[in-house]
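Could you please consider the sequence and fold following this short note?
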Amino acid sequence: MNKNKVQVVAATYQVNNDHVDDREYRISASVRQSAAGQTEVIENGVISALNGHSVATFRRYMGGGLTVEFDATCPDQTATLDAINGFIADCEEGGVEA
């Protein structure tokens, strides 16, 4: 295959916040970025308590749509949503660090 006939237009990374020592939740997701480094979609997002108990799942669409499904046992939906929004902002603001 001739390398000049194809180019990367997007890449998907599995990301998490495990490196953050003072986090309240563990958050992971698949993040698709354009070749220019712009976050396009965040899929398969999972947020769980530090003890591993699942709290919610989420997906962030292009254009700003956000879908969140809270588990029935979610102790604090407001704090959970704040954590999700912070994670999304981190992904969009600085891009994904490989």
Summary: The two ends are 27 Å apart (CA to CA). The beta strands are 10-16, 25-34, 39-49, 54-60, 66-70.
